[in-house]
Amino acid sequence: MKKVIYTCPYVSAEWIAAYGLKPCRIVPYSNGTNSGIIRTEGLCPYVRDFINNLNEKEECIAVFTTLCDQMRRGFDIVTSRLDTPAFLMNIPSTWQTIASQKLYLDELKRLGNFLVQSGGKTPSDETLAEGMLKYNKARKSILEMNDKLSALQYAQLLEQFGKNGPDEVGRMGFSPCCSSIPLAIVGSPLLKHDFEILEITELLGGRIVLNATENGERGLCSPFNKRKLKENLLMELADTYFNSIHDASRRPNSELYKWLKINLVEREVKGIIFHRNIWCDIWHAELQRLKDWIDLPVLDIESTGDNQSTNQNTINRIRAFLEMLS
Amino acid sequence: MNIEPKQISLEKWDEQYNKLRKAGLYEPSYGGRLSRHVEDGDMRLLKLKYDNSAAALRLWNFLLTEEDRLKNARDNCKKLIGTMKDLGTIPVMAYSFENTIAFYPDGAWWIPCVMELNAGLLEIADSLGIDESFCPVRAMLGAFATEAHFPIPDFLICSVGATCDDFSAIAQRLNGMGHPIFWWEMPHRRNPKSYEDKVILPGGFAAPKCQLEFVKSELERIKVALSEISGQEMNDEKLSAGIIKANQVRKYLSELRYLAFTAELCPLPALEMLIAEMLAIHFCSDIDETIEVLKDLLDEVKTRIKNNTGFFDRDAVKIFWVNPVADLQVMNLLEDCGGRICGTEYLFSHALDEIPENIPPLDALAQMALADPMAGSTIDRASRICNDIIKYGSEAVLISRIPGASHCALEGEIIGQVIRENFDIPVVEIEVPPITDAMKPTVRTRLEALVETVKARPQNKIHKRRTE
Ligand code: SF4
Ligand code: SF4
Fold first, then answer.
1. B378 → closest Cβ in A38, A66, A76
2. How far is B229 from chain A, CA to nearest CA, in Å?
3. B112-136 pLDDT, tens per residue?
4. Does A282 lie in the same domain as A245?
5. A157: left (phi over 0), alpha (psi -120 to 50) or beta
6. What is the ipTM of this complex?
7. Among B126, B225, B394, B409, whose Cα sits 20 to 30 Å from the Cα of A295?
8. By residue range, what is the domain housing residue A79?
9. Kind and range of the H or E element at B10?
């Protein structure tokens, strides 16, 4: 089955799966060498590694989105340098108008056309509904596992779910974190090697109760409304994805802060690790705003994308942060 | 008075001003000595070289008195509309109302350069968490915080979607500081599929009709919002009249660009051309005066061409310049190194293309907005640059990298690749910070190397499409 590779949370896995293709939402990784097709200064490492990972994959299809300028331009690089068939999905930044919501729906349909051209089959309503329910169930189980797994395992579970689909969920052994200081990690998506931040934080005495990075819990859509599913499947799919995933790139992004508030309070978070990838303006600009907004300590960790995120300096800063909180 | 074209310093401009006055110089209300602007803190002006014509004096004075015009407009109960990011479209709508003035707070981009970092705007941006990893537009935050560089607009309108991350992030920060913003969506322009209805936009890009309809619906929302804020109704007739006026600006600019870029001897230096082009974006808060300023420049250029006078050597290397320079002085530097500007893409080429007058006005404006070179793929932008290379006979391309700008990380590679695929001409990318003093020798060396490379090449290699 042909793989459709992407990273953006607004790309619906069940929509791709319904076309008989394999949705594969990856967590990009750096292969540690300088051999990739893109190494430009000023480029977000998440974009760089995504493009370089595509270059390493055999036959696949790539889906980019316009969630940020850098990803949008990453698509230009791929179309001009690689043979990988690629699609750029327009994700509106505004969300308060019917026109924006409709634009997202139209983009899903356009993605569908592209998938057909790439070997997919137009799905029946039954196939789509079945897939949606399956993914719904898997997401529910994942959310329930948050406090049963360490932060690293939870991130790996989310990664596996993105990469391999709902069938993988539930196969992971339990090993809850025993540390005591409840923390949230908020911000840019984590690169594979940045998962270490989660592990080290918990080894040093923190307990990450909320992974609000893009490839954490924040990147999962809410459950579908079963009544609405019966009325208009695609509309419900579009509505749920577009309206329940809260990203910093939204304009205005007030819903992100509402979502954070609910979750931070509910999980009694005592401190926030703010993670951002170097050159990511979208998240960088939120750092000071978050600090001004929240009455909790915030530790800023910038990932440079060179496997150095968890260097000794970062470890020391996390340790000091936790000491301050304990 | 017949004046030999020369680039002169600000000091010399005072003497020149006296001479022009004696010769009966016409001065608009904002006229006067150029040197007086230094008292406002515009220190970079002391380091620039200027065209010595009366037309250039009017241009500079017009540019440097915009803040007064905005204050005046507010005193006269006009509504100030802060348009952000779209560069050229929304002001055409705003100026179609009788009582609104539109300007771009984005223009604060230049303040760190013009005031030689003395305004402290970047420090304020730093303190708000927007550091040097963002492009110089972060100075806008400081300008809002100090309220010292432009009056705070009555209404802010910002395009988002297919825009840069820097601006989108900074505008959101501004919003978070308590400035309400009317956001509108600019979709990423894409090439239409064979089965889709398509439209060819001003400037030559194509887009699917559905995208045009979408942008039109966004402009409709803006029209309603502007009507509310201005307390006036807007109809097609008024909008069409606004478009006709904007087109007068664009026609003059188009002629000016063609003459300045193709004349054997350069009739207008790069700095004055850059400022003239910038007038197209929001008319420096007075569209009628913009038309007069450009007409003067055009007359001057025509006279110079007729008299076979101008600047620099006849063999000055024709450079196509991509992106605006954060330090204006670099435009002078290029000319000192033996180059001249023949072709530009300063991020707002769509504001230079004539707006269609034979279709409903909102459709025409939607076409214009969608034609933004930054809203589509970099490959499209590069192909537009290629067309202009042919039109203006450019011999080399200089991509000026804007520090911190999100689009600059990848666009240079793509633009360079497309140009090299099409032409056998050198392409270089140089980063230009708001003040280049410390790295001037490096920038100079690179500019000189570019000029020498072109001069050392056989003439027939120049600006020929590889496929031809
Ligand atoms: S981390 Fe930021 S710049 Fe990088 S892909 Fe995500 S949003 Fe874009
Ligand atoms: S210079 Fe570039 S990054 Fe900065 S505001 Fe303009 S378009 Fe955006």
1. A76
2. 20
3. 999 988 889 999 999 999 999 999 9
4. yes
5. alpha
6. 0.95
7. B126
8. 3-125
9. helix B10-22
